[in-house]
Amino acid sequence: MDREQQDALYQEAGSALGPAIRRLARGYEADRERQRDLIQDIHFELWRSLAHFNQRCSLRSWVYRIAHNVGASHVMRSRRTSAGLVDLEALDVSQPGHDEEAQAARRLSASELLDLIHRLRPLDRQVILLYLEEETAADVAEVTGLTAASVATRIHRIKKLLKQIYTEGDAHANRRLS
Amino acid sequence: MPIGDSHEPISIWKKQDEEEGAVPIKTAPDDFAERVRSMERQNRFVAWSALIIASAIAIGALHNVYVAEQPWIRLSQAWMVAVISYIFATESQRRGVKGSDEPCARFLERRHEEQARSYLRFRRIVPLMIPGIVAAWLGGGPLITAKSSWFFRFCAGPGPFVMIGVALAFLWWAFGTAAKKAYRDRDEIRHRIAE
């Protein structure tokens, strides 16, 4: 593949999945500065990989595979120094809006969601992140390499767990994954 | 998946950008191409530096092979050249892979496998050092380097030999433990894939 085609594919992937990549990076890194580096790394590896894009899977799956593999490498590297823990205090959640009370409640939930994601090992993290991006079980299976049945089971567990956290306020639900 | 109104996880997840603002990043292909060139330059620099350092140590050891009178010292230095050549030859083959297009589970499985193998590769170097150390010991190597009298006394005893032995045993154990953990992680991923 020549450079022009590679750039065109990258632009196509970036415009379709740029926001998803940004959110995905949040699932792998809590620190804002390092998050930016991770996003940059994902884009860089994505651009590089597209030189040998073979169309054996969809461009969407390809992008997710690259992004999650870069994210997983990031987690594996940082676990050596921080024993798998991400500093959630570093998350920037301060930006008051017009309905401050409702927005504060939503931010708390978003940080709880990130907290839960950061406690997960890479493979489960990939499933939950893809689920939150509304990918189908078949697509999640294509990206992760798990069987569709295994993905369906995991998504079922994730739904149950999220339901507990968001509707029942089960404080112990978080600990089940720690 | 109706879970609640404002607390619905998918909508919360997707609204993060609106609330926190998008992170500004460089995504121009020309910047990436420049980064590739810079990485290639850096890799060449590291490879040449490693070659120069390894060559300098090997040349020093080879020099000792010729100038040393004690045969055991000569043997230990020759052994050192062989070990350095082995380490350089095996380590220069390594390539880091970060962004692979493999399915994520396979990628993780391979990463753990590679991690375990590299720990075991480092562990294999540990016993390779023993013949050189023993030969240097038999040739009175520590006594040659000892400058002060207390250090001479220390070197004349079993102290240095025991200390080096303990350090090598610790390294052997540490690399072995790390490799076992990496293999456990790999097996867990394999189990997940097969589920």
Helical stretch count of chain B? 8
* Rg on CA atoms of chain A, Å: 17 Å
Count of DSSP-assigned helices of chain A:
7
Mean pLDDT of chain B: 83
Using the alpha-carbon principal axes, give the shape of chain B: elongated
Unreliable stretches of chain A: 85-98, 170-178
The number of distinct β-strands of chain A equals 0
Helix content of chain B: over 70%
Tell me, briefly, the overall form of chain A: globular
Gap between N and C termini of chain B: 25 Å
The largest sheet of chain A is: none
Give the quaternary arrangement of the chains: heterodimer
Strand residue percentage of chain A: under 5%
- Strand content of chain B is under 5%
Going by helix content, strand content and strand pairing, the class of chain A is mainly alpha
Short description:
Helices cover 72% and strands 0% of the residues of chain A. With 178 residues, chain A is an all-alpha fold. Chain A contains seven helices and no strands.
Describe the structure in your own words.
The complex is a heterodimer of chains A (178) and B (195). By secondary structure, chain A is mainly α. Helix content of chain A is 72%, strand content 0%. Chain A has seven helices and no strands. Chain A has helices at 3-28, 32-49, 59-82, 100-119, 122-132, 137-144, 148-168. The longest helix of chain A is centred in the N-terminal third of the chain and has 26 residues, at 3-28. In chain B, helix 3 (29-67) runs antiparallel to helix 4. Chain B is elongated, with a radius of gyration of 26 Å. By secondary structure, chain B is mainly alpha-helical. The interface between A and B is large, with 67 and 45 residues.
Structural topology:
The complex is a heterodimer of chains A (178) and B (195).
Chain A: H1 3-28, H2 32-49, H3 59-82, H4 100-119, H5 122-132, H6 137-144, H7 148-168
Helix pairs in contact in A: 1-2, 1-3, 2-3, 3-5, 3-6, 5-7, 6-7
Chain B: H1 9-14, H2 16-20, H3 29-67, H4 71-91, H5 104-138, H6 141-145, H7 149-156, H8 159-194
Helix pairs in contact in B: 3-4, 4-5, 5-8
